[in-house]
Design a protein that fits this description.
225 residues, alpha+beta, Metal Binding Protein, Guanine Nucleotide Exchange Factor, Chain A, 5 helices, disordered N terminus, disordered C terminus, binds zinc ion, CENP-V/GFA domain-containing protein, lyase
Length: 225
C-alpha cells in the first residue's frame, strides 16, 4: 500500500514503532499503584513539567517536593486532561473545555468504540500538537480515509489499546487546525450542548432537537423515541 507510506510522512514526529528512549513502564505496577493513573503517568513521563512551571508561582520551587504531595500542581493546569484507560498516555488539552462535542452514530464510530456511538471532543491543535515527546513512543497510529476525502490519523495507546485522538489531514497534505479527542478520554467531559451526527445509523433514540443538520439527512431518518 503505497498510500500508507506517503501518509506516514505526514506526521514524521510520531514514531510508528515501539522504539523508546526510556524503559517502558511496567504495567503490572500501574494497576497496583495507589495514585491515580493521571498522576502516575504524569510523574512517570514528566508530561506536565512545562505546564506545571507555567502555573507555579514565582515563590514556588519548580522542582516537585516529595514532602508536599497535597500541593502537587496536578490541578493547577486548568486545561482539560486527556488520558487513556491505563494512564500511560496522559497529556493536557489546549484549552479547558472542548469547542464542540459530537456524538457520532456512524458505523465507523460504532466499530471504533465497540459500542453504539463515538463521542468526539474538538480541541484546537495549536498548543496541543505535536504531543509531548515523552508520550509519543507509547502512541500507535492507524490511518484511514474519511468520507469527506480527508485522511484520518488515528492515534491509540500501545499499552491499553484505547483510541485517544484523531488528526484530520486535508487532501493537500495539510493538517486541519482541530484535533478530535475521543470523549471518554477527556476527564470531566459533559455532554451538555453535544450534537448528534450520522444519526441514520443510530442504534439508540436520539432527541431531534440535538441533531446537527447535515445535508442529505432528513430528520425523519432519525431514530426518535
Ligand atoms: Zn493506555
Ligand atoms: Zn463517526
Amino acid at each position: 500500500m503505497n498510500s500508507s507510506r506517503s501518509l506516514r510522512t505526514l506526521a514524521p514526529r510520531l514514531p510508528t514503532t515501539g522504539i523508546s528512549r526510556r524503559p517502558r513502564p511496567n504495567l503490572t505496577h500501574v494497576a497496583e499503584y495507589t495514585m491515580s493513573p493521571y498522576t502516575y503517568a504524569s510523574r512517570l513521563l514528566g508530561v506536565f513539567s512545562r505546564q506545571q512551571h507555567r502555573h507555579q508561582s514565582t515563590t514556588t520551587s519548580s522542582a516537585p517536593s516529595s514532602t508536599s504531595r497535597s500541593t502537587q500542581p496536578e490541578t493547577r493546569n486548568e486545561n482539560a486532561k486527556i488520558s487513556c484507560q491505563c494512564g500511560t498516555v496522559t497529556f493536557p488539552a489546549s484549552i479547558p473545555k472542548p469547542l464542540a462535542v459530537y456524538i457520532c452514530h456512524c458505523t465507523e464510530c460504532q466499530k471504533q468504540s465497540a459500542s453504539a456511538f463515538g463521542i468526539t471532543a474538538m480541541f484546537p491543535a495549536e498548543g496541543m500538537w505535536p504531543l509531548p515527546k515523552d508520550i509519543q513512543p507509547f502512541l500507535g497510529k492507524w490511518v484511514r480515509e474519511a468520507d469527506s476525502g480527508n485522511t484520518l490519523e488515528c492515534y491509540f495507546c500501545k499499552c491499553c489499546g484505547v483510541r485517544v485522538l484523531h488528526r484530520p489531514i486535508l487532501p493537500d497534505g495539510t493538517a486541519k487546525t482541530m484535533l478530535s479527542v475521543k470523549g471518554g478520554c477527556v476527564e470531566g467531559l459533559t455532554l451538555e450542548g453535544a450534537k448528534h451526527v450520522y444519526v441514520r445509523s443510530a442504534l439508540v433514540p436520539v432527541p431531534p432537537e440535538d441533531v446537527l443538520e447535515v445535508p442529505g439527512v432528513k430528520l425523519d431518518q432519525v431514530v426518535v423515541k
